[in-house]
Amino acid sequence: MSATATITMSALPSKSTIKLAPAQSHAEASSSQAQNQPPKSQKQMTKTERREQQERQRAAKAATKAAGPQPSGSNQNSAQVKKGAPPAASTSASVKKGGKGPDGKPTKDTKETTSDDSARGLRIFSHFGLPKPPGPSKGDIHPAIIRLGLQFSEFKIVGANARCISTLTAFKTVIQDYVTPPNNTLSRHLLTHLSPQITHLVSARPMSVTMGNAIRELKLEISGSDIDLPEQDAKNLLCQKIDDYISERITIADQVIQETAGTKIKDGDVILTYARSSVVEQVLVGAWDDGKQFSVVVVDSRPMLEGKKLLSVLSAMGIPCTYLLLPSIGSVITEVSTVLVGAHSLHSNGAVFSRAGTALVAMMAKQHSVPVVVCCETYKFAETIQLDSFTKNELAPAGDIFSSFPLTRSKDTLTLNKQLNLEILNPLYDLTPPSSITAVVTEVGVIPPSSISSIPLALGRTTL
Amino acid sequence: MATDLSSVANQRVVDTLAARLRRRQVVGSRETALETVLVLRQVISKARFSNIDQLVEIIRSVGRKLVEAQPKEHTVGNTVRKVLHHIREEYHTASKGTAVVSTSKDTLSIAKFVLQGQPRKQNVPQKTTLNESHDMLKENDADDPDAFARTLKPVLMEAIQDVLDELETVHDNISKNAKDHIHSDEIILTIGKSSTVEAFLKAAAPYRKYTVIVADTAPSYGGHDMAQSLSSAGISTVLVPDSSIYALMSRINKVMIGAHAILANGGMFAITGSLLVATAARAHSTPVVVCAGQFKLTPQWNLYHEYGALDFADPSSVLGFEEGNLVDKVDVVNPFYDYVRPELIDAFITNDGDHPPSSVYRLIKEAYDDEDYEL
């Protein structure tokens, strides 16, 4: 009998607490008040006290869910609420009065619900967040690294190879300037010294696979360095190893790829390339220097419009070029004989992670039976499997930092900034499925996409 | 055979429109269609003719002039054909009355069936005024050469008003069933700025909560206007560059694009980028829906498969003069339209219902008369 009575009693306050829950998120004030009273059983409590207990429980639940977004200023809101007035009236009171805290509090609550509605739009890329400019450096960051971080965040250095080479060069400087503190070995302490530098670079721009692979190799070398070597010799050895890495895995690899891919280009070919890959640029320049007569179609797209740089290099050499933007590719693809693209990284399932838009180019080419050749060094191999373009991607910063809009259109008509209900996303990479790729040219040979997972074997590693 | 006296005024009106079309001062399917109808209305109201053939010839010559001025705007020709179709219908109704229906029923053969298409348009409601003028429809009357024109003109004006009404209510009719095509929490991809798609999406917005991803089709960047307009209507919108279309396609439930002209085989001309979108959608088995008015149905085929409609725009929006030293060394391509094959399209939503691309030929047969395919 009494149990049912309590149930019907509790049904009432639950309706009113629903109104309260958005207005209060921190139950701390309410719980502190409750602690002043001795705990009573439900039968002994009056109606208001039972109601207050329900509210406290609900508030506690809401607080654990919404922990964080509301600052503690809203405590004072809930403190006002507890002043004994019936919950409905107190809700309106707290909302109207604005609390003792800063003014925007209740409006912030309502705004949160509306921003939830408008931001329901796309949470596909919400796990990236937008890139922020690198904050003040914490700890001892070498000035070379600071400069590099700035260049990364402003997209002055772009491209997987360029970023890797610049990172390794900067690390050479760091290593040369490094002094082992007493009672420490170089092989152990250097690693801890490098960690904050790497973190700083990652905060400027997410690390590329090439940088990751190179740094992993570097760490391996450091931890394997001989303890007995005098410090300067050890440092020189490390710098030498870095130089060897750059030379073997990047420079010489590029030359091998240039020769291999160059054999695929014949006189009279029309080569299509997308955006700007340093490797493809070398291939085309090398083939032209060998005397082959071909023409190039450069396809370009926002947000970065990198193809223009490639265009200036190629046309300066006298190669006949055509330039167009990505949507127009359907009109020219029938005249193309080969598609050459670069990659950011290769994955075990044969997928190629590359500049956004490459997947479209590869798809259209495959539709028209045009071979798609990816030119890529083996150090870009990532042992992970990637199935879509969402799990690992990067968003370009908002605004028009690449000046990628034509001058024929005034900037006022273009939507450059976020507004209510409008979000602007500029993913920089996308994943080309293995079905769209014909072959991958690496320094260990020309391989079909299904064999990408055996690249480590080809490099002589017995285990993955 | 334009009659001499009133032909001067007529020609001025027609020439003005032809000049504007040639200079591309009037662009866009719906605008050109509306202008064409207004010009035709003026031409017909001032025209003098004694029999139906003269009238048809007048309209045809006007149509030919306009189409020659701008062959890329297919809706000009379509509107002329539609007006001719209506005129012939009204004329048949006026002169023969219900006899038309009975003749079609008498001789039922496969050939007749195919030629006439579905007989639904034959049941034209009898206008009471015509019953009186039924006896008075004199053709080639030597005494009173204008008698024929006089009696027929009011009917013709009504017919043209029908065409005009249809053009003006295109967006409303297409958006009528918008909420039945979109489900909650759907993500729809669209490109460029199509007023038809915009009206469609805005019509569904009060009933469904969904998201629209707009690709900012370079180099016209119509996507920016579209995104602004949709977001200000309360639809949650995301603006992305065209390069991410394939990347996002796996999350997209439906692709909705507009058309410039729908061709006789069910394919269409649409803004550059539509072919990319449709192909990417096909690769992910995402349905592609095209919203277009019936005035875009064109009884023509695409002979130039590579460059959609062989229509090119200003290259400086691709590579401007700010890249000074590149401009003369490089070829720049900037086609206006893409040709999208019928196999890539799943449905056409028109103001006259929804149709798959395979039935477009039937729609064209009903909308226009055979003899008008070649103006």
From TrEMBL, chain A:
Family: Belongs to the eIF-2B alpha/beta/delta subunits family.
Major localization listed first in the record, in broad terms: cytoplasm
Organism whose genome encodes this protein: Suillus plorans
Entry's localization field: Cytoplasm, Cytosol
InterPro entries assigned: IF-2B-related, IF_2B-like_C, NagB/RpiA_transferase-like
The protein's name: Translation initiation factor eIF2B subunit delta
SUPFAM superfamilies reported for this sequence: NagB/RpiA/CoA transferase-like
Subunit structure: Component of the translation initiation factor 2B (eIF2B) complex which is a heterodecamer of two sets of five different subunits: alpha, beta, gamma, delta and epsilon. Subunits alpha, beta and delta comprise a regulatory subcomplex and subunits epsilon and gamma comprise a catalytic subcomplex. Within the complex, the hexameric regulatory complex resides at the center, with the two heterodimeric catalytic subcomplexes bound on opposite sides.
Low complexity: compositionally biased ranges: 21-42
A Pfam entry, by short name: IF-2B
Entry keyword Protein biosynthesis: yes
GO MF entries: translation initiation factor activity
UniProtKB/TrEMBL annotation, chain B:
A GO term, aspect molecular function: guanyl-nucleotide exchange factor activity
Flavoprotein keyword on record: no
Annotated compartments: Cytoplasm, Cytosol
Pfam families given in the database record: IF-2B
Keywords per UniProt: Cytoplasm, Initiation factor, Protein biosynthesis
Domain of life: Eukaryota
Signal peptide span: none
Gene Ontology CC annotations of this record: cytosol; eukaryotic translation initiation factor 2B complex
Predominant localisation class: cytoplasm
Gene3D superfamilies linked to this entry: Translation initiation factor eif-2b, domain 2 (3.40.50.10470)
The protein's assembly and partners: Component of the translation initiation factor 2B (eIF2B) complex which is a heterodecamer of two sets of five different subunits: alpha, beta, gamma, delta and epsilon. Subunits alpha, beta and delta comprise a regulatory subcomplex and subunits epsilon and gamma comprise a catalytic subcomplex. Within the complex, the hexameric regulatory complex resides at the center, with the two heterodimeric catalytic subcomplexes bound on opposite sides.
Family: Belongs to the eIF-2B alpha/beta/delta subunits family.
Name of this protein: Translation initiation factor eIF2B subunit beta
